[in-house]
What we know:
2 helices; alpha+beta; 108 residues
Amino acid sequence: MLKKAGNTTKIELELRTFDSGSHEWEVRALSNRTVEMSIGAPGIKARGVATVKDGATPLDALVSYWLFVDVSGIVGWFVSEKDLRAKQERLIDRNLRDLEKVFGDKKV
């Protein structure tokens, strides 16, 4: 954690899926069980949102997650739209699997 102010935290995070090194992300926890993440690194703008809703039983939850990544400038020369889409899908899959590992076996 780099800095915390209210419901916003700045963290240093490395996304190995994009192989771009670590960058500063802004993470906001909202009152409706939603977390927003954003980055504005040189040549990369990204925003992700995860929302958790109650499932059919107290042991279940519905997690929705979306991610939008836009590359520009020199970075855009080296990443095609097809490659960017595939990396986004792998990143979402990894993030959801990580959430399952951490919270999937919890008992109420």
